[in-house]
Amino acid sequence: MSTPEARKTVVMVVDDAVDCIRMINDALESAGMTVLIALEGSQALTISQNITPDIVLMDAIMPNMDGFETCRRLKQNPDFANTPIIFMTGLSDTEHVVMGLKCGGVDYITKPINTTELMARMQVHLTNARMAHSARAALDTAGQNLFAVDRHGAILWSTPQVHQRLTGGGSNNLELLTNNLATWLSHNPENGHSLTLDFLPELHTVEFLTLVDEREYLLRLQEVQKPSEATGALRTRFSLTGRESDVLLWIANGKTNREIGQILEMSPRTVNKHLEQVFRKLGVENRTSAAAAAIKCLART
Hints:
elongated, Arc Repressor Mutant, subunit A, 50% helix, Beta-Lactamase, alpha/beta, Rossmann fold
């Protein structure tokens, strides 16, 4: 049985020096890679709208838009979140090294380029990127649907399925997502607390799991079932009344008693009465624990 042909590594080289591009292009093509050429930052951004390379080689100093700004703009595109960017320049002072790393670069190599060294560094970063992608794909297979953001709500990484769901609505949805997450995280949500995303093509919630290394907010994305299906699942699992399951569903979606009262057309006091019964039947003491139990129940259905 024949095995599928391995996909070629795609490399985007961004440099205004034609001689340097020619040398790098020859070395990469000899190694069996596909090379995309951009002579300036704006060309790289144009290419990035249609193609996501496996790795980018970026000249730091270019006219009009330098490599640092080009890198920052590329990294604003979620498709490039996991794409390694290696800077190439004749500058080797600490200031420019730090600038390259701060704007999203993973490595730095000085000109004139030693192609043997360049290929070795590229291989390390390509291997790391592919291992990370495989691990995140495995999380999807396990039904985890995880992603991480910084305190400003910008996506640091995501599993493939999460990436597809979050980017399916275009740049406007991504901006809304970033703003909503930044506001929510500024209030320091507790583990298990959820935020409803009602601007995506399908209704989703984001569950806060933990803060990693004081900088990565680990989140889980979950599609919200249709209310009738979701409330039915909660009613059956926890022996709730119809109204109790309605209240629990909206608690799981991060709504306050006042908001639930408006949605279900009842007073906040009535909502609280139902919630007391929900706590008793679920054997929990607060709304965070109730929400966590409901989310787990709905994730299994």
